[in-house]
Amino acid sequence: MADLAATAPGAGFRTGAAVLAAEVRKGLANQLAHPLGHIVTLAISVMMYLGLQYVMGQGELRADLLPATLIAIGAYWFLQYSGQVMVADLIEEKRSGTFAAALMSPAPPWVSMIGRLATATVFALPVAVLASLVQALAVGIDIPWRWSAIVPYLLLAANILAFTFLMAAIAIRSPMIGALHSLLTALVLMLNGAFMPLSLYPEWMAAAARVLPTTLAIESINRVLFDGASLAAVWSDGTLPLLIAHTAALTALGAWLFRRNRRLAIAEGRVGQY
């Protein structure tokens, strides 16, 4: 039934746009209905970041470490909150049965997923930016700006959203997605440069960190902002091409898993349950 509804003649642009808008409104309403949990989580994360920077600085907040690590922790917050919005809501909707009902929409099945991704962006990006700005003002962190940094920043957002979509695609069928998502985001927090710049890591650990989302983008941003490198230089050293390839691989894997897991969940009768 869901496949027939998805390919019905009425599933045009206007229907898809209406479903997309409804998905965004629903997702934002769900998140804004319980703001206290987000505030507490973010406050704990901020205190943990500043506390670890205090330890890393041996009793002081070092001005040479804070700018690069603030960019990295901001990327982590975007990753964490976008996953929380998209993956946690998807799990709850599967348990309540509303996800199965959404598959009866005349719009293509990927439209609701794009709506969830848009909700994750609209909610998580302001949270990450605001939290970063508050810390920069409170502690006096000075981050220089160059317009060429927009490119790696946009690629950072694309990389995070591709990873978020991949996690949501896994969540359609796997009951272990909560543990997997927590593990991977914890690894990102430890290794993407939020605690100390990647240049201070052993080479083998830095290589492992570059496999995780956000790390390559953060390296590119740091090169542009703090080293004064041009985009051509960041391209020629291989960082930008690897970042684009990494994002494309996450996107392709997420799209494949979404189609596969949705089809298997329908065939197994497990759309509304794990």
Detailed description of the structure:
The protein has about 270 residues and is mostly helical. It has twelve helices and no strands. The protein has one domain. The protein has helices at about 1-5, 15-30, 35-55, 65-95, 100, 110-140, 150-170, 175-190, 205-210, 215-225, 230-235, 240-265. α4 packs antiparallel against α10. The longest helix has about 30 residues, at about 65-95. It is globular and about 55 Å long. Residues about 1-10 have low confidence and may be disordered. It is found in: Membrane. It is a multi-pass membrane protein. This is ABC transporter permease.
Please sum up the structure shown.
The protein is mostly helical and 274 residues long. It is built from 12 helices and no strands.
List the SSEs and their pairings.
Elements: H1 2-6, H2 13-32, H3 35-56, H4 66-96, H5 98-102, H6 109-139, H7 150-171, H8 177-191, H9 203-209, H10 215-226, H11 231-236, H12 239-267
Domain ABC-2 type transporter transmembrane: 25-224
Transmembrane segments: 37-56, 63-79, 113-138, 150-172, 178-195, 238-258
Main location: membrane
